[in-house]
Design goal:
Layout (H helix, E strand, L loop, with lengths): L2 H20 L1 E8 L2 E2 L17 E2 L1 E4 L7 E12 L3 E3 L4 E9 L8 E6 L3 E6 L24 E2 L7 E2 L14 E3 L4 E7 L16 E12 L3 H18 L1
Parallel strand pairs: 2-3, 10-12
Antiparallel strand pairs: 1-14, 4-13, 5-6, 5-12, 5-14, 7-8, 9-11, 9-13
This protein binds calcium ion.
């Protein structure tokens, strides 16, 4: 190995470690009753049936070009019985819920998935909801990466391209995001105005990592490390 090559390898290694040490890591339990449309300050239920509980709110370290990754497991149930994991299930073949105040709606196949939304700092109550993310088919839950906008509810699932398998998916954090909110998009039969949280049971154990302005090389390396750690676990 040439000196030049070993020095380059060392620099890459140190940069990777620096990124890893600054990454924001955490764990949170997202109850099946966690209302994604409430931004942690209220639990709206315009569709009736109960607004559930406050969504999980994670205050993000500031930065630009941040990337989030997730690893989620556990089981959640709807109307007492049917259960599924964080990638969602067949309680309803699809979810179609309109926006609530400044938070976008959520439309896609399956139901009961772990979803998230990035929120900016300050009072958002007077802001207009953006259009929803596009999830036209099951394959749209299996992408390598996603770029949700502020206040745009996005699919997380178990955080991997498959269900319980595959590689970690990268979620690019919109610049200006101050909070990451995690919860469930629920409605009567998962269609129509949000509500019907109060008969939900269980929840999702969710680990998250937000990598600050990593540069693509360090991000790829850190995601690889995370994947390797999970495979050993
Ligand atoms: Ca998945």
């Amino acid at each position: 190995m040439s000196n030049a090559f070993s020095r380059a390898a060392l620099v890459i290694g140190v940069c990777g470690l620096a990124s890893a040490s600054l990454a924001q890591n955490g764990f949170t339990y997202v109850k099946a009753t966690a209302n994604i449309f409430g931004y942690g300050v209220s639990t709206p239920q315009p569709g009736g049936g109960g607004g559930g509980t406050l969504a999980n709110v994670i205050a993000l370290n500031s930065g630009t070009g941040r990337v989030a990754a997730f690893s989620s497991g556990g089981q959640a149930g709807w109307a007492g019985t049917n259960v599924n994991g964080p990638d969602g299930g067949n309680f309803s073949a699809n979810t179609s819920i309109p926006s609530v105040g400044p938070i976008s709606g959520f439309n896609g196949p399956l139901s009961g998935q772990l979803v998230g939304v990035f929120i900016e700092a300050g009072d958002i109550s007077a802001l207009t909801a953006p259009g929803g993310m596009s999830y036209p088919d099951l394959a749209s839950y299996q992408q390598a990466s996603y770029t949700p906008g502020l206040r745009q509810v996005f699919f997380i699932g178990d955080g991997k391209t498959g269900t319980g398998s595959g590689s970690l998916q990268a979620f690019f954090v919109p610049d200006g995001a101050a909070y990451l909110v995690l919860g469930i998009a629920d409605a009567f039969g998962f269609n129509g105005q949000t509500g019907w949280y109060d008969d939900n049971v269980g929840g999702y154990e969710t680990s998250y990592t937000i990598i600050p302005a990593p540069g693509s090389l360090a991000a790829a390396g850190l995601l690889g490390l995370l994947a390797a750690r999970r495979r050993r676990a």
